[in-house]
Write a structure and sequence with these properties.
- By secondary structure, the protein is mostly helical.
- The chain has one domain: Orthogonal Bundle (DNA Binding (I), subunit A), CATH 1.10.30.
- The protein is 37% helix and 9% strand.
- It contains 4 helices and 2 strands.
- It has a two-stranded antiparallel ribbon with strand order 1-2.
- The longest helix is centred in the C-terminal third of the chain and has 13 residues.
- The model has no long low-confidence stretch (mean pLDDT 91).
Length: 111
Protein backbone atom coordinates (compact mmCIF):
# COMPACT_ATOMS: atom_id res chain seq x y z
CA UNK A 1 0.00 0.00 0.00
CA UNK A 2 1.37 3.42 -0.88
CA UNK A 3 0.99 6.62 1.08
CA UNK A 4 -0.29 9.92 -0.30
CA UNK A 5 3.28 11.28 -0.44
CA UNK A 6 4.54 8.23 -2.38
CA UNK A 7 1.62 8.53 -4.79
CA UNK A 8 2.27 12.26 -5.28
CA UNK A 9 6.01 11.63 -5.77
CA UNK A 10 5.38 9.05 -8.50
CA UNK A 11 2.94 11.33 -10.32
CA UNK A 12 5.37 14.27 -10.05
CA UNK A 13 8.20 12.06 -11.37
CA UNK A 14 6.07 11.08 -14.39
CA UNK A 15 4.80 14.65 -14.90
CA UNK A 16 8.42 15.91 -14.96
CA UNK A 17 9.55 13.13 -17.32
CA UNK A 18 11.88 11.74 -14.63
CA UNK A 19 13.86 14.97 -14.25
CA UNK A 20 14.57 16.87 -11.06
CA UNK A 21 12.49 19.99 -10.55
CA UNK A 22 15.56 21.96 -9.47
CA UNK A 23 18.58 20.75 -11.45
CA UNK A 24 16.79 19.21 -14.43
CA UNK A 25 18.92 16.07 -14.28
CA UNK A 26 17.55 12.58 -14.83
CA UNK A 27 16.62 10.81 -11.59
CA UNK A 28 15.77 7.24 -10.70
CA UNK A 29 12.67 6.22 -8.80
CA UNK A 30 12.78 2.45 -8.50
CA UNK A 31 16.13 0.86 -8.08
CA UNK A 32 18.80 1.63 -7.21
CA UNK A 33 19.79 2.16 -10.83
CA UNK A 34 22.00 5.22 -10.54
CA UNK A 35 23.90 7.45 -8.14
CA UNK A 36 22.18 7.83 -4.76
CA UNK A 37 22.40 11.63 -5.14
CA UNK A 38 19.94 11.34 -8.05
CA UNK A 39 17.34 9.22 -6.23
CA UNK A 40 13.90 10.78 -6.60
CA UNK A 41 12.39 12.37 -3.50
CA UNK A 42 9.17 14.26 -2.91
CA UNK A 43 9.75 17.96 -2.35
CA UNK A 44 7.12 20.16 -0.73
CA UNK A 45 6.98 23.56 -2.44
CA UNK A 46 5.22 24.92 0.64
CA UNK A 47 6.63 23.12 3.69
CA UNK A 48 4.28 21.17 5.92
CA UNK A 49 5.37 23.43 8.77
CA UNK A 50 3.88 26.36 6.84
CA UNK A 51 0.63 24.58 6.00
CA UNK A 52 1.70 22.77 2.82
CA UNK A 53 0.16 19.37 2.20
CA UNK A 54 1.05 16.15 0.42
CA UNK A 55 -1.26 16.79 -2.55
CA UNK A 56 -0.24 16.94 -6.18
CA UNK A 57 -0.26 20.74 -6.36
CA UNK A 58 2.35 21.03 -3.59
CA UNK A 59 4.68 18.13 -4.45
CA UNK A 60 7.40 18.11 -7.07
CA UNK A 61 10.00 15.42 -7.74
CA UNK A 62 13.51 16.46 -6.73
CA UNK A 63 16.73 14.51 -6.59
CA UNK A 64 18.07 13.71 -3.13
CA UNK A 65 21.03 16.07 -3.60
CA UNK A 66 18.91 19.10 -4.48
CA UNK A 67 16.34 18.38 -1.79
CA UNK A 68 18.91 17.93 0.98
CA UNK A 69 21.09 20.83 -0.15
CA UNK A 70 18.14 23.23 -0.13
CA UNK A 71 17.09 22.21 3.36
CA UNK A 72 20.59 22.30 4.86
CA UNK A 73 20.46 26.07 4.67
CA UNK A 74 19.45 28.04 7.73
CA UNK A 75 16.53 29.50 5.76
CA UNK A 76 15.77 27.44 2.64
CA UNK A 77 15.32 29.70 -0.40
CA UNK A 78 12.03 29.94 -2.26
CA UNK A 79 11.67 27.09 -4.79
CA UNK A 80 11.88 29.31 -7.91
CA UNK A 81 14.95 31.18 -6.66
CA UNK A 82 16.69 27.96 -5.67
CA UNK A 83 15.85 26.38 -9.03
CA UNK A 84 17.45 29.28 -10.94
CA UNK A 85 20.55 29.14 -8.74
CA UNK A 86 20.92 25.37 -9.15
CA UNK A 87 20.40 25.44 -12.93
CA UNK A 88 23.09 28.11 -13.25
CA UNK A 89 25.53 25.92 -11.33
CA UNK A 90 24.60 22.83 -13.37
CA UNK A 91 25.27 24.74 -16.61
CA UNK A 92 28.77 25.54 -15.30
CA UNK A 93 29.30 21.88 -14.33
CA UNK A 94 29.65 22.90 -10.69
CA UNK A 95 26.66 21.26 -9.01
CA UNK A 96 27.65 17.59 -8.74
CA UNK A 97 30.80 15.55 -9.39
CA UNK A 98 31.33 15.03 -13.12
CA UNK A 99 30.46 11.27 -13.20
CA UNK A 100 27.14 11.92 -11.43
CA UNK A 101 26.43 14.94 -13.61
CA UNK A 102 27.15 12.82 -16.70
CA UNK A 103 24.76 10.06 -15.52
CA UNK A 104 22.00 12.59 -14.85
CA UNK A 105 22.55 14.34 -18.18
CA UNK A 106 22.42 11.12 -20.22
CA UNK A 107 19.49 10.55 -22.54
CA UNK A 108 16.43 8.97 -20.94
CA UNK A 109 16.51 6.32 -23.69
CA UNK A 110 19.75 4.91 -22.26
CA UNK A 111 18.28 4.32 -18.82
Amino acid sequence: MTSQIQHSRRIAFDRQCGKCYYCGLRMWLDGPVGPSALRCTAEHLIPRSEGGGDGLSNIVAACLHCNQTRHKRKKPPEPDRYRAEVRKRVSRGAWLPKPILAWGSASMSTA
